[in-house]
Amino acid sequence: MSIDMKMAWRNIWRNPRRTLLTVLAIAFACVLLIFMLSFQFGSYATMINSSVRIHTGHLQIQARGYLQNRKIQWVVPDPEAVGRMLDRIPAVKAYTLRANAFALVSSAERTYGVMVTGIDPDREARVSTLVHTIQQGSYLSDQPAGDGMPGALIGRLLARNLKVTVGDELTLLGQGRDGSVAATVLKVRGIFASGQDAMDRSTIQMPLKAFQSVFSMAGAVHEVVVMGRNLADVPDIKAAIARKLPAIPGDPPLVVLDWTQLMPGLQQAIHMDLISGAVFYLILIMVVAFSILNTFLMSILERTHEFGIMMAMGAKPGRLTRLVLAESVSMTLVGILTGVVTGCLVTGYFMVHGLDLGASSEILRQFGIPSLFYPRLTPLTATAGPAAVFVITLLAALYPALRIRRLQPVEAIGHA
How many CA atoms lie within 13 A of 152 on its CB side? Predict the structure, then answer.
């Protein structure tokens, strides 16, 4: 260790109370930044997984243009071939088939336009959490009721608007894929509350086989919904599907879309939250920077006489500047190392045990969202905050350090 570093280390402990308060401020900022960034990223993963499991899935295979213009004629004509392809991709956890059509649905009192979705009940339960949001009645079955009518799941807002409950009958009227009239009578099996008002207000689900028969689908579907084992696997799954998809015929051709394309609003909400979080983190870092600035300004004012004597003995202003900067770096590094270790330990604990949101947990569970949130500690979340603290505090220490260059030995020695 050089003589300058030894002097710097000795000097920062000349006033241990002030040094400890400054180090603790830096450490606290690092702990807060590590935990909050990890919690933010972990909550995004939870939000994404919860949203995609309610409806869209991580990815969907559909006809090109179907997402923007939901024409009933734009289909996946051979869903079984798509299924065989997906079975050969290890990262795919599950998939299901869906078909959609716009129709009028009537109860005894009212009529509304809705989106009717045909689902495979068994496969859908492995992909979607909608089965866990049923508030009244039961889940769908491929088997019709005793009276031969297909069952239906409807959103709670639609049920309220239609003034129906479990066991009531609904009349469905639409247009089939071949232009024929699609009409049937459904019996309400269950009422769900997904937490997405647009879906709860305008969606009816019925068994896929019954849907294909009513709407003359000839075995085709509109969406093959795919769930990966992990959110991080989505880009690899998408690339694997994109390579194999051209071999499966479709008119229009089939394409694969990931959750960012299926739910652009969610991605925009995450970006907005990141920006607001960055503003909060910047304010926190600036508070720490002013703390460092105040500490070193006071230190230099107190030691002006000392600096004057050292300059009179031949010490160059540049060496004194380097000495003060070495003190700043040493103090900052001690605080950052303390904060990183503590922050990783605190975040690691909640990564294992989760963070319960208290009174909000029961509300979240009703909408299929886990009651425990798990921070996501990564190299980025563990280093981004401390790195920003280090840069800002170093810049804050430059001003008091550069003041030394303007000192005159005679005036500094006479400084009381």
Answer: 29
